[in-house]
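Re: beginner question about structure tokens

> Can someone show what the tokenized structure looks like for a real chain? I only ever see the sequence side.

Sure, here's an example I had lying around. Input first:
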Amino acid sequence: MSDAKLIEQLVARAVADALTRAGIVNSKQGIRFLRLSTIKERTSLSTSAIYGGMAKGAFPLCFHTGERSVAWLESDIDEWMRERAARPYVPRGALARPRVSPKEKASTPGNTGGGGGGNNLLHFKDAITKSGK
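And the corresponding structure tokens:
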């Protein structure tokens, strides 16, 4: 999350908090506060994932609604969910090289099956370099 976006979120949150405290705006007029249980239900994230995301700047920040309670702006959570939904899904490890079984390695052209996994030329090159020739 960029610094500008973080500042924008903080300002929006401060304004919403000030308007709510002054009684000018409440949740029925467009600003709605969501508690942790609702956030967990909507996002399917655990408590530690939510707070970890906040610490990394990857999840909207909460603010105090009382001495021992916090809440998030519904609009922040909705925006975060829209951004997540817009990203393409890439399964974990999909960009990694495919695994090759030892049997497949042995059958690849140029592999002598010497246990070097096709790196026999590199071993030969190292041996020449070490011997000084």
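Each token stands for a local structural state, so reading them left to right follows the chain. The CA atoms of residues 54 and 60 lie 6 Å apart.
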